[in-house]
Specification:
Blueprint lengths: L7 E6 L5 H11 L3 E6 L4 E3 L8 E3 L5 H18 L2 H11 L15 E4 L2 H13 L7 E7 L5 H19 L4 H16 L3 E7 L1
Helix pairs in contact: 1-5, 2-3, 5-6
């Protein structure tokens, strides 16, 4: 059975830096039509002290953030993996994007933590209905660190691969989710909303 790579997919985390970008990278390499976003007010990255995060506006180029961290403390940000992550990100797209500012329609939206899932639902429900086109919104909890982001990207890609084999996602979704949850031992939140 061939994959339906025509699904339009959004992957959403809080800052569009780690988890959503790792999954974006994986899915793009598999040929999927994918975009990634964050839902936070601003982009937040760990700083040299717990009470001093690095904060940027959405739309700030990954290059700019990379160079800012290099100028602040290259060794520290190399050791903690942020520079490596930003280097990957800038090869995928120009800058972190905020989900609430996007008006593109997707078939599937995948979030990586319940708080982000709630923010996506809240935003979608606040929009005017345009053409009643359904969108499936899923949440798979993924811890925000490099190793878990990598494992999460595998999980999300596995889930999308299953969905892309369906010729009628609206009809098959419950069955697909049950199979995925039992195979992966993961709980998935799911909602259907309309554009």
């Amino acid at each position: 059975m061939s994959l339906n790579n025509s699904l339009s997919i959004a992957v959403v985390c809080s800052s569009n830096m780690n988890r959503s970008m790792e999954a974006h990278n994986f899915l793009a390499k598999k040929g999927y039509n994918v975009r990634s976003f964050g839902t936070g007010e601003r982009v937040k990255l760990p700083g040299t002290a717990i009470d001093k995060p690095n904060v940027y506006e959405f739309g700030t180029p990954y290059d700019t953030i990379y160079n800012d961290l290099v100028s602040k403390d290259k060794q520290y940000y190399t050791q903690n993996g942020l520079l490596h992550m930003l280097d990957r990100n800038r090869r995928i797209k120009k800058c972190p994007e905020r989900f609430q500012d996007c008006r593109e329609q997707f078939d599937v939206i995948v979030t990586v933590e319940e708080r982000v899932y709630d923010q996506v639902l809240e935003n979608m429900e606040s929009r005017d209905v345009v053409d009643n086109r359904p969108v499936h919104i899923f949440n798979v909890d993924i811890e925000d660190n490099h190793e878990e982001a990598l494992m999460g990207a595998f999980l999300i890609t596995d889930m999308i691969n299953m969905m892309s084999k369906s010729s009628d996602l609206d009809n098959d979704i419950d069955e697909l989710l049950q199979e995925f949850e039992s195979r992966r031992n993961k709980t998935v939140l799911h909602a259907v909303l309309f554009y």
